[in-house]
Amino acid sequence: MPDELKILFIGDIVGKPGRKVFSYFIPSLIEEYKTDLVIVNMENIAGGFGITVKTYGELENLADVFTSGNHVWDKKETLENIDDMQKLLRPLNVHPSLPGRKYKILKVKGVRVLVTSLLGRVFMKPVDDPFQTIDNLLQKIEAEVKIIDFHAEATSEKEAMGWYLNGRVTAVIGTHTHVQTADEHILSKDTAYITDVGMTGSLDGILGFRKEEVIEKIVYGIPKRLETCKTNLHLNGVFIKCNLEGKAHSIERIDETMED
Ligand SMILES: [Fe+2]
Ligand SMILES: [Fe+2]
Question: How remote is the CA of residue 179 from the centroid of ligand 1, in Å?
Fold first, then answer.
């Protein structure tokens, strides 16, 4: 169909193994799905925590927009350099004085595409109300297609955001929990939704990290340096199709596995 947009959204890239599996699969996925736009969550690209100038540079040319999340400021250099990272978004509902781009409007096939991301508030650090924040943005932004990365922990809050924005945005894509959920569907007013797209990294550990240290941390409550896991590498994401008015037709889960 010529009058539709094809959008690939890839879940949180975790560390070097995540960058490796992402770089391996993304060119062929773009070709296979004939994508118009690629959006990738990169909050965990640098050692699993945050973003560095170097790791951002490594992936910059492989996607159109990068979203982030609660780990966006983990590396001190991000705060100093985020304004120069042209394709990276910081979450919309953090303190307004923080640097970085809050959203992007891209022109794709003559259509304006808004991409932004919001942090949830349930079981997470306090941030501004994501519901009011997105209302305020949608009131002032003119775009046909609107893609929202909702970076949140609780399924209930994510489903609430999906239904809250039903018919007002093209897609509400959940990130942050790193486990792909099997609930992708089109809501009643043509908004594509999934609770979590999953992650891009190793599925042999816990959220992409070596399980030994995570177990010790959880069992004994002792701070531990976490290392990313290097085996059983997956790329997780969704492929969304919508019309040029921003109504979603379909959402399909993607889970690619790299041979060890
Ligand atoms: Fe993450
Ligand atoms: Fe996160």
Answer: 10
- Which structure tokens are listed for 12? 């949180």
Which candidate in 71, 151, 178, 234 is catalytic? 71
H-run or E-run covering 104: strand 103-108
What is the whole-number distance in angstroms between the Cα of residue 4 and the centre of ligand 2?
31
Residues 22-60: tens digit of each pLDDT: 999 999 999 999 999 999 999 999 999 999 999 999 999
Per DSSP, what are the bridge partners of residue 116? Answer: 103, 148
Span 63-108, pLDDT tens digits = 999 999 999 999 999 999 999 999 999 999 999 999 999 999 999 9
Q: Which amino acid is at 86?
A: Q
If you measure from the C-alpha of residue 1 to the centroid of ligand 2, how many angstroms do you get, rounded to a whole number? 35
Put the strands of the sheet holding 185-186 in their side by side order.
103-108, 111-119, 145-151, 171-175, 192-194, 185-186
71 catalytic residue (yes or no): yes
C-alpha to C-alpha distance for 64 and 107, rounded to whole angstroms:
11
Residues 25 and 256: beta-carbon distance below 8 Å:
yes
- Cβ atoms of 197 and 234 within 8 Å: the answer is no
**43 alpha carbon to ligand 1 midpoint, in Å?**
6
Spell out the domains of the chain, with CATH numbers in brackets: 4-257 (3.60.21.10)
SS3 state at 194: strand
User: pLDDT band for position 1 (50/70/90)?
Assistant: low
Contact 148, 134 (CB under 8 A): yes
Ligand nearest to the CA of 228: 1
